[in-house]
Write a structure and sequence with these properties.
Layout lengths: L1 H50 L3 H26 L2
Keywords: Membrane, Transmembrane, Transmembrane helix
Length: 82
């Protein structure tokens, strides 16, 4: 009877060890997935920052062209209607 109990205990211990290993493997896999997702998001953020770096400059250029057109328009109109 003692031998059977010892065998049952060992079987239970082995089962728990296997479950623990499974949980650890799953946890490591989840950590790897999270790290990959973070790296992907960092790369996307850097790409967006790189693409939008010149947007303020483009706005200034467009505003400057509009200002020049607004100033030049009456002058050109005056010169052409003489």
């Amino acid at each position: 009877m003692k031998q059977l109990t010892k065998e049952l205990m060992m079987a239970q211990i082995n089962k728990l060890n296997a479950e623990t290993n499974n949980i650890q493997s799953t946890s490591e896999l989840n950590n790897t997935k999270i790290q990959a997702e973070l790296l992907k998001l960092i790369a996307e953020t850097q790409k967006i920052q790189k693409e939008t770096r010149y947007y303020p400059l483009i706005g200034v250029v467009i505003a400057t062209i509009a200002l020049i057109a607004a100033i030049a328009s009456p002058i050109i109109t005056h010169l052409l209607t003489k």
